[in-house]
Amino acid sequence: MTERMTEGDEQPAPHAEVEQVWPEDGEIRVLGHLHGLTAAAPQQGWLVQCALRGPRGLSLEHPASVSGETFEAVVPIAALAPPEAPGKGVWDLYLVHGGERLRVGRRLDDIRAKNTIMIYPAQTFPADGGRVEVRPRYTVHENLSVDYERVTETA
Description:
With 155 residues, this protein is mainly beta. The protein has one helix at 114-117, and strands spanning 15-24, 27-35, 47-52, 59-67, 70-76, 88-97, 100-105, 123-127, 130-138, 144-152.
């Protein structure tokens, strides 16, 4: 499945269209709707998958809820810095169910270059004698990702 529109396409590929992002209270909450599915979406068993860009293969999953075509996904920020992850990285977000894997993004509005104008606040949490800073952001392809970085406290 491609994640970008090609010339002549009127609609982007099936994806999880973001309507709201709420980075607060130790979590990142994403609300939106499922776009482009050819059949009715199952209402049970959805997960939000956070896939680390590097090293490949590391991913985290949390329950997501789907009602009709709307979804809500909540990612606790403390989960985004597991010990096996490098000190800094990027998590790409997907909604998954069975064989369906939908990239989470915001493509159906008139706002382009969201990565330069939609800046979300960072959240931090204590970890390993320091802290971890987490911030959701849009990519150049209008997808939602989450940056994280471990920061060591200096005396």
